[in-house]
Protein: UDP-N-acetylglucosamine 3-dehydrogenase
Organism: Geodia barretti
Amino acid sequence: MAMYRTAIVGGRRGVHHARCYTGIENMKVIAICEIDEERLKEAVEELNVPGYTDYVEMLEKEKPDIVHAVTEPTVPRHIWVEPAAEAGVKALVIEKPLALRPSEAEALAAAHEKTGLKIIVNHQRRYLPFAEKLLEFFADDSLGDIHFIRACTEGDITDMDTHLMDVVLFALKDIPFTHVWGAVEGAEIYDVPHRQCPEDLMAIYTFENGARVFFESARTAFGTIDFPGSNPRCNLDFWGTKGRMWWRENGSWGYQFDGMAQHFVEKTHFGEDDKFGQRAFTEAIAAWLDDENQPHRNRLEYAMLGFDLIMAAYRSALIGERIAWPPKLSDEEWVELKNRVTGT
């Protein structure tokens, strides 16, 4: 079993991700990079590893196998790729969202194609316990084919709706969509107004297999009000041809299939589920490096599809029409929509 050495970029949220390496036999954190000196000092003290303020210097001196970059959305993700590949890094993990505007996603895709580096996006919900059960239901066909999904979340579009969209794609086995009708309202002006995204997004998607998705991401989402006690960050209902399954991030998850007299239900606690999910996500990086036949569930190609889905809803909202694949949104259109919602 190979030992994989990981360097962390980002001394705030990055430390949380570094903790998930503790106790994994064939993976360890060996360095951290952070430009804020105070955060760097705290991270070095907690992790007991060398600290750097320069990314390239860290790569040259430490020669990690894995880089885990956990930075703000305003830092373009593509800047980590080529230096990592040149330094012999085998896998790069980037934080969501993978981009804020189309040109950033295009630059990331180009860097990925140029280097061939394995890139993973930190949408760890594909490794939560409910996701494992969903895979079991796919394997034994107990849920049948999913034909409708109701998905809603509260929070920043650049934050929680990327997670929500990723779970939608996971449940639909990452197939492309055919049409979308989207609407946006307001401008995100809370803690990080520089993200410059709409405050509310609502869309109806149709996928290649005929499935439809009602998708809502908003500061106060309508679809979350009727789930008492649930954390509104991620709420999903999956209707299949043989039954129904649901998941609330802090509430409950459960299912009822044909022939079941009563539904199965269990409480959920994201704080506990995430410990399991983030660790499984981390272990899966090494598994992919060990064996090409065990690809990571959060490969860049899936996150790119999710990004395209969100950008497609933006474009539909901009032109006021239902649009079909491919949903190409230009940077100029992105700026036009941003200016419209911000009133500039």
Observations:
- Residues 270-290 form the longest helix (21 residues).
- Residues 4-121 form a domain with the Rossmann fold fold (CATH 3.40.50.720).
- The longest strand covers residues 177-187.
